[in-house]
Design brief:
about 260 residues; Rossmann fold; 7 strands; about 40% helix; binds NADPH dihydro-nicotinamide-adenine-dinucleotide phosphate; binds 2-hydroxyethylsulfonic acid
Amino acid sequence: MRLDGKTALITGASAGFGLAIAYEFALAGAKLILTARRIEKLNELAEHLKNEFQTEVFVYGLDVRSYDAVTVFYNNIPENFKEIDILVNNAGLARGMETIDNGVLENWEEMIDTNVKGLLYVTRNVLPDMVKRNAGMVINISSIAGRDIYPKGNVYCASKAAARMISQSIAVDLNGTNIRSCNIDPGLAETEFSIVRFRGDKDKAKAVYNGLTPLYGKDIAEIALFVATRPEHVMIQDIMVTPTAQATPTIVTRKL
Ligand code: NDP
Ligand code: 8X3
């Protein structure tokens, strides 16, 4: 499963899945464009990948919520990184858990702006060049939350359902080209996700994974690598992956 000669753009590479995907893709020989807001984390990762795997890495501090920022970033990609073979739309987050009647507007805006609009902004910049070259793959990290609602998941779930539809749109609208689309829907995974959701409350975040073995970044990264290394005539469109202890967002066995 090699990616030699391939260039991958990974959003949200400063933590969690994105960081693990960067590592796995570097190991497989890919050239990497890594973005996130925390540039210092990206620099650290890039140094590590350069030293360990001689990976060529371009890092860029990017908030995907700004269309202008995304466009400036895209136009500033160095010439030798410009031909993007694989786009991994991974940047995303959940904020809070309230019933919908008590929803916090600021949280709603942040989730929709990042998980839906940010994903679209990056995709809108990258896809036309993929279409021109008649080659490329988009991997969207959605969630099982986009397939099945859970109590107080409301807007996060809705944003991930939108991401899922966008994945399918790429396959549908670009049918007849060589561009491939893959939607990956992970279940409970221990990353910075719950720490971000609960705004730094580590105990609350830890409790999300109490009594079970969750997924980890590497589990998702290995799947992304598998998807990205299939022959050109194979498009894996949709993957759902959960910890073995999780059947649906709400059916979870915990050994406490
Ligand atoms: P982490 O919090 O560990 O990582 C999230 C990444 O997204 C960080 O690199 C963060 O970087 C980046 N990010 C967040 N907001 C923005 C923004 N506005 N602009 C640019 N980058 C941003 O969480 P995960 O790795 O778990 O999450 C990755 C994706 O997987 C998300 O889309 C999430 O919804 C999804 N997911 C997570 C699951 C889980 O249980 N963990 C399960 C299913 C899906 P920075 O803060 O530096 O900008
Ligand atoms: C994250 C998975 O179930 O914690 O997308 O919302 S869940």
